[in-house]
Amino acid sequence: MPELPIIDVRSDTVTHPTRAMREAMLNAEVGDDVYGDDPTVHRLERLAADLLGKEAALFVPTGNFGNQLALFTHCGRGDEVILGDDCHIVWHETGGAAVIAGVQLRTIESDKGVIRAEEVKKRIRDGSDIHWPKTGLICLENAHSNGRVIPLSAMADVAAVARLHGVPVHLDGARVFNAAVHLGCEVREITQYADSVMCCLSKGLAAPVGSILAGTHEFIAKARRNRKLLGGGMRQVGVLAAPGILALTEMVERLPEDHARAQRLAERLAALPGLDVDRSDVHINMVWFDLAPEVDTAKLMATLAAAGIRANPPEDGRMRLVTHWQIDDAALERLITAFATALG
Ligand SMILES: *Cc1c(COP(=O)(O)O)cnc(C)c1O
């Protein structure tokens, strides 16, 4: 019997480029992008800026790079950045904000990814007292890496406070296209509440590499210089921009499939013993759940591995599964069966 293909539900970052992407890479027109000569990069940046509703865009190596570049470009050293205490910039970017932008992160307790505008308002400081840092930036995240989509009204409230005080807003929109699918709106309806936005091409959109930072012409010109400073000026990078174009033109429209499979997965897992999934928290392609204390996690992980499933082990009893274009209906059934075997 032939070996079944591996099912990798650790993240949507594990997605391989599609065949069309590999062909586009082979055929991409290229030039030296540091000289501004790469036509494929220009096409990607124009397309991304239009979709994100911003004047200009910049191709960057990773989402992490894009977020840190935004902080570095918006802020001066010693500025304060206000953001939720459970956001990616605080948790998963290696403390980069202190090293690169040299900023202080001022966190606010988040309610499942939502930060309240009143709490932001209380913390904004203009630097007029010699003891005070100046608030340089406010960051939002949507979709949140907890798998939930933040309501537009919550973003609008924070943006209103920010504008009143003349503080820019950056949106970590690693999965902003997933957020738009969930809300049933255009991406620009989400990004309108931010001065700059980062989005990932290499997650559910399946490009092998790359993210976008978008904003005003002036901001992107400054960010382009700062990208060079950080060693991110890339040469014949049209080979990577080409799959990025397909990520935006062909892969966004199939995201609802991933969301529907996540819903189905949550529903079927909820029926199993020893596992508690809050289905109302499943907004995009992620299913989070708690395992009961009596569940033998070593046995669970071994059963999944034996069934050819790659999943991250639970942290503090909490586990995450992520759907993407390589998880089809057959893979989903194998995944559910493996959980049923392990827990049943
Ligand atoms: C993945 C992610 C990033 C970072 O993207 P990389 O390309 O992995 O560096 C930033 N923010 C959020 C919310 C993410 O989920």
UniProtKB/TrEMBL annotation:
Q: Which Pfam families match?
A: Beta_elim_lyase (PF01212)
Keywords tagged on the record: Lyase, Pyridoxal phosphate
- Cofactor(s) required for function per UniProt: pyridoxal 5'-phosphate
In short, the EC number is: 4.1.2.48
Q: Which GO terms describe its molecular function?
A: lyase activity
InterPro entries per the UniProt record, alphabetical: ArAA_b-elim_lyase/Thr_aldolase (IPR001597), Low_specificity_L-TA-like (IPR023603), PyrdxlP-dep_Trfase (IPR015424), PyrdxlP-dep_Trfase_major (IPR015421), PyrdxlP-dep_Trfase_small (IPR015422)
Tell me the ranges covered by the Aromatic amino acid beta-eliminating lyase/threonine aldolase domain, including all copies: 8-290
Query: Does the keyword Hydrolase belong to this entry?
Result: no
Keyword Lyase appears in the UniProt entry: yes
- Domain of life of the source: Bacteria
Q: How does it assemble?
A: Homotetramer.
Enumerate the PANTHER family for this protein: L-THREONINE ALDOLASE, L-THREONINE ALDOLASE-RELATED
The record's similarity note reads:
Belongs to the threonine aldolase family.
Instruction: Please report the name of this protein according to its UniProt entry.
Output: Low-specificity L-threonine aldolase
Organism encoding this protein: Crenobacter oryzisoli
Gene (UniProt) = ltaE
